[in-house]
Request: fold
Amino acid sequence: MGEERKGATGRRGRPRSTDVDRAVTAATIELLAEQGYARLTIEAVAARAGVGRPAVYRRWPTKDDLVVHALVEQVPPLPVPDTGDVLRDLKEMSAGFALRLAGSPLGRTVLAVHAEAGRRPDLAEVLRHHYLNPRDATIRALIERGLAEGHLDPALAPDTIRDLLFGPLIYHWLVTGHLTTATANNLAHAACAAVSRTVTAGPVARTERRMQG
Amino acid sequence: MGEERKGATGRRGRPRSTDVDRAVTAATIELLAEQGYARLTIEAVAARAGVGRPAVYRRWPTKDDLVVHALVEQVPPLPVPDTGDVLRDLKEMSAGFALRLAGSPLGRTVLAVHAEAGRRPDLAEVLRHHYLNPRDATIRALIERGLAEGHLDPALAPDTIRDLLFGPLIYHWLVTGHLTTATANNLAHAACAAVSRTVTAGPVARTERRMQG
Amino acid sequence: MGEERKGATGRRGRPRSTDVDRAVTAATIELLAEQGYARLTIEAVAARAGVGRPAVYRRWPTKDDLVVHALVEQVPPLPVPDTGDVLRDLKEMSAGFALRLAGSPLGRTVLAVHAEAGRRPDLAEVLRHHYLNPRDATIRALIERGLAEGHLDPALAPDTIRDLLFGPLIYHWLVTGHLTTATANNLAHAACAAVSRTVTAGPVARTERRMQG
Amino acid sequence: MGEERKGATGRRGRPRSTDVDRAVTAATIELLAEQGYARLTIEAVAARAGVGRPAVYRRWPTKDDLVVHALVEQVPPLPVPDTGDVLRDLKEMSAGFALRLAGSPLGRTVLAVHAEAGRRPDLAEVLRHHYLNPRDATIRALIERGLAEGHLDPALAPDTIRDLLFGPLIYHWLVTGHLTTATANNLAHAACAAVSRTVTAGPVARTERRMQG
DNA sequence: GTCTAACCGAGACGGTACGTCTCGTCTTGCT
DNA sequence: AGCAAGACGAGACGTACCGTCTCGGTTAGAC
Reply:
């Protein structure tokens, strides 16, 4: 079977084949996109990956573990735009994130997994650790910078800013079932306005900014 | 089985027992709360309801139909606050809605159904028709009133206002897994500020901002 | 599915299809003959019978139950020869029985089942009740007749006579792996001589017979 | 692992550990006694022996080979009685053999292996060569002596005598599931009578018969 | 005294079958 | 015609073993 790179665990026994890891993850992504989370079957994953079922269970004991891992591998890290304008960066980041989620066949899967994570703390932990936190760190860094530079409302906690920025976009997609670029820009613009220092003016903002610095 | 009230459809043959309807719906709610959407089984629903499986299938041909119907029956209509202050009403409505969703064991189920609705247009239709639209109508009425009375930003479409109001709350619950009353009030307050008339008429907006800081 | 004769149990629910009974039993016989007991698989039985696996388990919960039932159905009752000569009848019956067992592909299966019955009293019970007892009754009737008529040694218990008659034939097949007609006749003849009243003479035998009658 | 005696094959490389041989054989015997032939797994044998699975396969490629080897090692050679009285020796030998088989938890295993040997000529060969032949040789020697000394019926072939002697005992155990000492002695006595010199020389035979009746 | 072939344990591999569970349908007798 | 009961073919579940194949490490005869 192909190149058959070995893991470097140093443990006893035959090491797990990284080929199998890759094939199973790829098959999971494919089938999630084709069939959706509810109709995903470990049997079908193993078959598509050309792998025995036990090889899948050995790695990820439940369907949720399998799916979370696949999502973590698959969904790329948020590219962090840096145009010099923090507000613009945030706007682009939030709209881009939501559009990518809404546009991907895996977007709905993220929802299903979140739903299951509500009853499985371990799963929630993995999801939070590998999926949410890395993305959140990127967002938070940008928000902190925005706050430091005085472009964001200092009365709002970073988490609140995050919710105000990303919430409307995700919610729109959730309840309407789609999200166009125009709508996304529209919502991102409005949300940005809600978290920025002031919508219109200069002087007052500058004064307060000096008080912070 | 008890009283055995008959439906009044005027059809031939034995009419469907409304007892069965009720028992099945109740069993569905219970099991959704106990086991979650993914582990819900029509077999278990029928057993819990003390009913044959075909009697369930006769009414709701798929698990999703069954669940959507149960949700529609279960989740109570949004109470419409009317304090005379539209902004306050909206704030209370959004926070109350989100808190009830986050506090109910069925909250996560709504997510799972939304996830499935992404691939099943008929299900999305039912969900939209029986679940989302009635709630949306209430919200929209309030928003229209707020716009008419000049308390909401006229530059924003009603849908955008809805997303800005409800999105942050739902999003917070989605990514953190919980929603406290304090957080809800906080977010509802900030969101309300974002949709209230601030863009053109400066003073009012500035005043509220100062009260926050 | 075909004629679909119903059981007459009078019970509630859908009655078990006798077609399935027949198909599974037939498939079991075939596969036992083709593959032997050890390689027999319930999965293969179900597939060959064109039946779901649970339909097999519903009837016979273990492989052994399935096989015992199939043997009981399959192996035909001993034909009772009645030539007027009891000794000749016994000779033919024992040789015929052993030859049929040794000549059938299912013969070895009987051994395997006996081996398992040693650890499963319930199985031994079924085997004894449905398989051994009916055959034993036939044999015993003949032996009793032989004793009554004075052709068999009255010093020997009926069971002992049975063991002396059938044992050598079965043992030969067991340790050598085959049994020719010549060998069978040979052994049956020798065994018959061992259990008959006297090998050669008349008068003494008659005298003792009068003492019994 | 322990003393680690070396094989003297003259081969290169590390010789096979005789400790492993012993441990595996012992584990096989134990598990056969505990679980029976059908439930014996190579995995369990290896685990019980504290050995890797490949070490078992290296020695005995199939379960049957493993079991036959274990039986050969385990079941002790027939003790050959020599009281001067050949008939008595044969009687004791056959009864002792059957009683030991029926009394051992491995007795049923011999049946199961015989059943499998019916479809596997190579296995039958091993079984015959290592298990049956050595025992048969002992028996045959005694029979030949009995014939030579005129105590056995010269009209009967040695094989026939063997079948007449051992068959009834084994058959009784086979169909009834047990064998008491009394029954064994009884059957051995009757069988011995059947093979002793009775056909031609009348008086001796008649005398013994009278002693029975 | 290396070298090196064959062993050792551990354990993953692709498989097969297990026995169970649930699916959605169908077939009973009863209401 | 609806009802409960329950069997039906189908098929996925998660587990147990199969027989094979690496692994990192011995072990001991051959060089």
Notes: Chain B touches chain A through 48 residues (CB under 8 Å). The first helix of chain B runs from residue 18 to 35. The radius of gyration of chain B is 21 Å. The CA atoms of residues 197 and 213 of chain B lie 19 Å apart.
